[in-house]
Amino acid sequence: SWWQRLRRAISLYDVARVPSELATWGNALPPEALSRSTAGQVQGLVDSLQALAYRMQDLVEARMTAQSPQPVRELSAEVREWCSGLRKILSDLSHRPESADFADVRAQLDATLERLERQTGKGVAGADQTGFAQGESESSFRLLGALRGVSEALVNFARQGRGINWVHLREDRF
Questions:
Q1: How confident is the prediction for the chain on average, in pLDDT?
Q2: Separation CA 36–CA 167 (nearest Å)
Q3: Is the full-model pTM beyond 0.85?
Q4: Which residues contact 116 (CB under 8 A, 6 or more apart)?
Q5: Are 45 and 157 spatial neighbours (Cβ–Cβ below 8 Å)?
Q6: What are phi and psi of 101, to 5 degrees?
Q7: Degrees to nearest 5, angle at CA 147 with 25 and 91
Q8: Which residues have C-beta within 8 Å of that of residue 31, sequence separation ≥ 6?
C-alpha cells in the first residue's frame, strides 16, 4: 500500500542518515566525555553502524526482488525468527551496549542462518525439480546473502560497541 511504501522510505532514510549524524556528534565529543575510549573507537563504531546501514539497505533491495513462491513459503518462518532475534539483539544493544557479548550475538544469528541455508538449499532443489527459473533461485540466495550481511555487520557493530565506555559517556555534563 501507499502507506507502507512511505513508512519504508522514511525508515530507509533514517537508516542512511543516522551514521553521518553520529559521526558529526562523535567528532564534537570532548576528550573528557570519552574517558578511556578514544576518538578512533568512536569512529570505528560509526563506521560499523554505516556498514550495518548499507547491509540493511541491501536486504530491503533483496526482499523486493521476485522470489520463487515455494522457497519463500518454506523460508518465511525462519526469516521471521531471524527478524525477531535481530529485533531482540538491537533492543538489547540500544539499552545496554556495554554488556553486548558479540560472541553470543554471533552464535544466535549463525544458528538461525544455518537453518535458513538448509531450507534455502531444499527449497531451491524443490523449485528446480518443478521448473522454476534459475533467476528465481538466485534471488533466494541473494536474500540469504543479504541476511548474512546484516548479521555480520551487526556482530561487528556489537564488537565495536564493547570498546566504548558507555557509562561515562551517558553521564550528565551540564
A1: 82
A2: 11
A3: no
A4: 75, 78, 79, 82, 144, 147
A5: yes
A6: -110, 100
A7: 50
A8: none
* Lowest-pLDDT choice from 67-76, 103-112, 162-171: 67-76
- The phi-psi region of residue 67 (left if phi > 0; otherwise alpha if psi is between -120 and 50; otherwise beta) is beta
Tell me what pLDDT residue 66 has: 56
String of DSSP letters for 93-154: HHH-GGG--HHHHHHHHHHHHHHHHHHHHHHHHHHHHTT--HHHHHHHHHHHHHHHHHHHHH
3-state secondary structure of 61: helix
The helix/strand count (H/E) of the chain reads as: 7, 0
Q: For 155-172, b where at least 16 C-beta lie within 10 A, e where not — what string?
A: bbbbbbbeebeeeebeee
Q: For the segment 118-133, what is each residue's pLDDT rounded down to a tens digit?
A: 877 776 666 555 555 5
Would you call 174 helix, strand, or coil by DSSP?
coil
Return the C-alpha cell found at 33: 566525555
pLDDT-based confidence at 117, cuts 50/70/90?
confident
Contact 90, 99 (CB under 8 A): no
